[in-house]
Design brief:
Distance between the termini: 42 Å
CATH superfamily of the largest domain: Rhodanese-like domain
Strand order of the largest sheet: 1-6-5-2-4
Shape: globular
Structural class: alpha/beta
CATH architecture of the largest domain: 3-Layer(aba) Sandwich
Helix content: 25-40%
Strand content: 5-15%
Largest sheet: 5 strands, parallel
Mean pLDDT: 88
Order of helices and strands: HEHEHEEHEHEHEHEHEEEEHEHEHE
Number of helices: 11
Length: about 325
């Protein structure tokens, strides 16, 4: 293991400890370019940076993949968490934000402490990792970073891999009471915007088949989309042909400009259950620096559950999980 700690990491921990396709539906917004001034990326970490700090006891690495993938090989010292560990069973449908106590109990059982730096990764373009980050942002826990490129990038940089389960002594983890609800939008708030003819841009970050209503994934009661949605498959932001890292700033800006999105627009993202849309939220807010961005956590799973809510579809639905 490497115990060399970078000056960057020391400063980071000190600060943290003090805190405890072309659109399928045309948009009505005017053409406007996104600012060339790009925000810093405090929540992304590269494999080369992580190699310097990953074995420090105040760094907890989260492997956000299913147990089968974790057992085949994971970053040395990583703790495995999956969506099932975050289930909120107080709704008649799945995928909703976990309760604070669920996170507190889970983290405490895994040995995660309030003054730890969490680095999370997955193996599919950081989609699941970003959702994990987004949930913790909602609960105002900011000491989280996403490994750009995930486990593949780690391997490419000769990072240590293990098949042994990582176990840490239990801890006492607590979340603050001040939620950052500004990053989320509720079903009722979204419906109000639809009924008021708001100029908010609604991005459907699912696949084209889901958008058209041809595909109905498990958990949804019908196929279709929220009215006025614009199709933007989340994975267009990922460089799959190379390293599963985010595309360049230039490429990401071009994708948004093609959708006629400007830095002053209000943008709402959604998908099937708020996972893929959290990634697009991250790209818009944290990478491109847009200010008025919201993720609809309930997404299509929740929206499809209520018969009184408006929806659109272009195809006969085929149930496809």
């Amino acid at each position: 293991m490497r115990w060399k700690i970078s000056l960057y990491f020391v400063l980071f921990i000190a600060v943290c400890s003090c805190k405890n396709e072309t659109p399928a539906v045309k948009s009505s917004v005017k053409n406007s370019s996104i600012s060339s001034e790009i925000k810093a990326l405090p929540y992304l970490v590269e494999a080369t940076e992580m190699l310097q700090i990953y074995s420090n006891p105040n760094v907890k690495i989260i492997d956000f993949r299913k147990g089968k993938s974790y057992n085949k090989g994971h970053i040395e010292g990583a703790i495995q968490i999956w969506r099932d560990d975050f289930e909120n069973d107080s709704f008649p449908y799945g995928g909703m934000l976990p309760k604070a106590e669920t996170i507190e109990i889970l983290f405490s059982s895994l040995g995660i402490k309030n003054n730890d730096l969490i680095i999370v990764y997955d193996d599919r373009g950081s989609c699941d990792a970003v959702r994990f980050w987004w949930v913790l942002q909602y609960y105002n826990f900011k000491s989280v970073k996403i490994l750009n490129g995930g486990i593949d990038e780690w391997k490419d940089n000769e990072g240590a891999i293990s098949s042994e389960q990582s176990i840490y002594k239990s801890s006492y983890f607590t979340l603050q009471n001040n939620l950052d609800a500004s990053i989320n939008i509720s079903k009722n708030e979204l419906l109000k915007k639809l009924n008021s003819n708001s100029k908010a841009i609604i991005l459907d970050t699912r696949t084209e088949d889901e958008f058209s209503g041809k595909r109905q994934k498990k958990g949804a009661l019908k196929g279709g989309r929220i009215p006025k949605s614009i199709l933007f498959d989340w994975d267009k932001a990922i460089d799959y042909s190379n390293n599963k890292k985010l595309k360049s700033i230039k490429e990401l800006k071009e994708l948004m400009i093609a959708l006629q999105i400007s830095e002053t627009d209000t943008i709402i993202t959604y998908c099937h259950s708020g996972v893929r849309s959290a990634h697009t939220y991250f790209v818009l807010k944290e990478v491109l620096g847009l200010q008025h961005v919201y993720n609809y956590d309930g997404s299509w799973t929740e929206w499809s559950y209520f018969e009184e809510l408006p929806f659109e579809k272009d195809s006969i639905t085929e149930l496809n999980n």
